[in-house]
Design a protein that fits this description.
The protein is mainly beta. The protein has one domain (4-106): Nucleic acid-binding proteins (OB fold (Dihydrolipoamide Acetyltransferase, E2P)), CATH 2.40.50. The chain is built from 2 helices and 11 strands; from the N terminus they run H-E-E-E-E-E-E-E-H-E-E-E-E. The protein has helices at residues 4-7, 77-81; strands at residues 14-15, 21-23, 26-28, 31-32, 34-36, 43-45, 59-60, 85-87, 93-95, 98-102, 105-106. Strands 7, 8, 9, 10 and 11 form a 5-stranded antiparallel beta sheet that branches. Strand 9 and strand 10 (98-102) form a beta hairpin. It is globular and about 35 Å long. The chain starts with a helix and ends in a 9-residue tail after the last strand.
Length: 115
């Protein structure tokens, strides 16, 4: 949904404990978290605040459990989480209303009330 040229140079939030999978003849080892409107004609990678070190774990307040070593696609875990992931009216990504945060503040999106 996001062209490679638009991704170059961006600092993004990546779900990196996914089981590797081949996508378009290339092995994928993670998924860039994006916000999207209903029709998917606006898809924007979630922005990480300035100063957050590469590799820092993003957390959601109230959900501080250790991450799974690897997300098994057969268990459809992400499919169960996605319906509860949405940006709020300010474009801040949330899970069940709780903000995705880093050591330098919340991650953000220019798309309010987006999936």
């Amino acid at each position: 949904f996001v062209p490679e040229e638009a991704m170059r140079g961006l600092r993004v939030l990546v779900v990196c404990n996914l089981k590797p999978a081949k996508m378009r003849e290339v092995m994928s080892f993670g998924m860039v978290l994006c916000a999207s409107n209903e029709t998917h004609d606006q898809v924007v990678p979630v922005a990480v605040p300035e100063g957050v070190p590469n590799g820092e774990r993003c957390t959601v307040e109230g959900y501080e459990a250790a991450p799974l070593e690897e997300v098994n696609p057969k268990k459809k875990i992400l499919e169960r989480l996605f319906p509860d992931m949405k940006t709020n009216s300010e474009g801040v990504p949330c899970y069940k209303g709780a903000v995705f945060k880093t050591s330098k503040g919340p991650v953000t999106s220019p798309l309010p009330d987006a999936w």
